[in-house]
Amino acid sequence: MRVIHTIANLAVESGGPAQTVSGLCAALQGRSVEALIVTQKNSLPGGSTSPEDRFHPQVRDALPGRRWAGLALSSAHRFGALLRMHCKDTDPCIIHDHGLWLASNHAAAVTARKLDVPLIVSPRGMLEPWAFRHRAWKKQLAWLLYQRRDLRAAMLLHATADQEAGNLRRRGLRMPIAVIPNGVPLPDLPRTKSAVNRTRIALFLSRIHPKKGLLVLVEAWRQVQPPGWKVVIAGPDEGGHRGEVEEAIGQAGLTNVFKFVGLVDGGDKTKLYRGSDLFILPTFSENFGVVVAEALAHEVPVITTKGAPWEGLLTHRCGWWVDIGVEPLAAALREATNLPQETLRDMGQRGRAYVEQNFGWPGIAQQMLSVYQWMLGQGPKPDCLYVD
Known about the structure:
Elements: E1 2-9, H1 16-28, E2 34-41, E3 70-72, H2 79-90, E4 94-98, H3 103-115, E5 119-122, H4 129-133, H5 136-152, E6 156-159, H6 162-170, E7 177-179, E8 200-205, H7 214-224, E9 229-234, H8 241-251, E10 258-262, H9 266-274, E11 278-281, H10 290-297, E12 302-305, H11 312-315, E13 319-322, H12 326-337, H13 341-358, H14 361-375, E14 385-386
Parallel strand pairs: 1-2, 1-4, 2-3, 4-5, 5-6, 6-7, 8-9, 8-11, 9-10, 11-12, 12-13
Antiparallel strand pairs: 7-14
Helix pairs in contact: 1-14, 2-3, 7-8, 7-12
């Protein structure tokens, strides 16, 4: 089976989809799927699109005999032409497009229609209510001009959680929806045991973007101000939002508590997780929130909001899942930062078990393969697929 995956950006600073799309393709390769990634931007070190550096994509040239290739394109204008060329060269069974709104997404839909190739679309949270309201006029225009039509041409949609699937239905999209979470690699553990009297670390690791709720975190931390704790903020600045956050930190008198470390990846990211006692994602909206799964995989308990689909933090007793806003976050911070290290460590171990059972890449890839097989009439309807 050959599947072409299309995504606008595979650069690490672009966020979770760059990581999860490459991870999915890597996992699918062990299951008789030849995966070709077509992208407009691939700026990882050495041209690699894989966080684990398992593959060495060809730039511009996708050799038919290769099971993986990344295509760095100079402009969106050429995307459609190159995609059609590679479809004709590789004769794909399916086109799997990731994201919405961009020229690359429209090109994928047009190409699938012209070449009569089944199309599956993973919106990647871009139709969640908060995301749709952000820069709403542009999205409303795109929705009317092409995006709604492109989605309705898809044979199937992929959501990463029931919450996202429900929001897709509320947009009037009635085609089948596969609900399959993202996966995460499981790092080698255990961590080294933390010193009892060291400064304890609360970690935020994501894009520095208004959606992520950092201003809420600053105000909640100002209210709680737990002794012996510091906050590390890791991730790339987007749209100059870091300046707003730094200003709020200064006004709250927390300059000595918050530390920015910029974009981290690979071993540096692993080191950050392993050195943290608590992970915080005070987001307004996530279709999944892969950093939550990453933190749990590193045995770090998590505080996040009901803007992310992580009720499992409560059922598996590995974190806090709270309403969006300063007061609910402050209450969770007050409780979490007063717990002994051993209690937080126990929560982290339960989180690791939760991730291992539900979000390992082998199982995720098997679910996606079963969806592809159903699309091609080669298998029964999988349990993760909803057709009503």
